[in-house]
From TrEMBL, chain A:
InterPro entries per UniProt: Aromatic_CoA_ox/epox, Ferritin-like, Ferritin-like_SF, PaaA, PaaA_PaaC
Species this protein is from: Bradyrhizobium jicamae
Classification via SUPFAM superfamilies: Ferritin-like (SSF47240)
Protein name: Phenylacetate-CoA oxygenase
Gene Ontology MF terms in the entry: phenylacetyl-CoA 1,2-epoxidase activity
Biological process annotations from GO: phenylacetate catabolic process
GO cellular component: cytosol
Automatic annotation (TrEMBL), chain B:
Domain of life: Bacteria
Name of this chain's protein: Phenylacetate-CoA oxygenase
Pfam families: PaaB
Gene: paaB
InterPro entries assigned: PaaB, PaaB_sf
Amino acid sequence: MYTQALNTSDGDERHVEDAERATQFQARIDADERIEPNDWMPAAYRKTLTRQISQHAHSEIVGMLPEGNWITRAPSLRRKAALLAKVQDECGHGLYLYAAAETLGSSREELVDAMLAGKAKYSSIFNYPTLTWADIGTIGWLVDGAAIMNQIPLCRCSYGPYARAMIRVCKEESFHQRQGFEIMLTLCRGTAEQKAMAQDALNRWWWPVLMMFGPPDQVSQHSDTSTKWKIKRFSNDELRQKFVDATVPQAQFLGLTFPDPGMKQNANGNWEYSAIDWEEFKQVLSGNGPCNRDRLAARRKAHDDGAWVREAAMAYAGKRKQRAALQAAE
Amino acid sequence: MATPNIPLWEVFIRSRNGLAHKHVGSLHATDATLALQAARDIYTRRGEGLSIWVVPSNAITASDPSEKGMMFEPAESKIYRHPTFYDVPDEVGHM
């Protein structure tokens, strides 16, 4: 999943670049051509994409944590197998995305190190805790649902490797959303207590999920260049509205209500929602969400605990290479 | 300390017998055995393949995209290499 349209593109950085090449580049984009790794591209395009794709990759990896929290406590073997598969998918998505980011010239190690150092962002949504089993249902249904909304247009992004990675991701993401909805449906058809648990999860996740689409259009000043470069095809507010409109009937089917008494359908059929608390979003992004420190600490621990494995594998490969060279010399 | 770089591999998968192996992406692994296992886990979680090739990325020699004009022009100007270049009267039927 999970680019957040954090919209810190570097489109306004003026590099001294060949104006003719820049014009040719824009003409290729306008003609809907895909840009491939070794093609000439403006430095700002490279930088914006490296940041966006690596943030997306970090989000997939950090996104394993809130769900991994429930693997050992899934209520049945069926649920456990599905959750394991889903978390494994998120890891795979992270790896496709790191590979796509690397084609722009940064190494995966560099990108991962930046995340572990707290210098790179990931989606704000993963800084919220998963308190009950219903949170796993809600994440699949809404968080992955929002991600799909965001990612489907990215399958047509101008940068080839990113678009190809997104096609794979979107295919797999659909299972995630359906398994989440099934969890919610089971809870909603269960006891009053189970249904209350589902409602509580929706109440806690709804606003953070709406924030996943990024700041409102009137304040996201950097969207213009991303749109011009066809990295972004829809604005944050457009995608958010599409998501809300798609989600309302699903919640109605479940018999759940949104924690937004002001919500109403307008004459165009769109569901209007109340003002989003952007201060909360800002706080979570700047490290003050409920789980920010926990998530980074967990990633660092996993990375440090795995260091000996990486070292041993490198040493083994080195030894084998040396032995092969010796045998060849004999 | 910065994390040391682990070699990059390109992954090719044959999805069905009768089809060619097709590039699907890349991954990092310290040796060929681990690269194959990682490719299985990363790129074939839903039965996408029957056969996998992994190739060290630095073993690939690629044409230069900035010279693609020069590289591919000779083919573009030779329209007589295509069957539609030749006139065959309708009466002759499909050829």
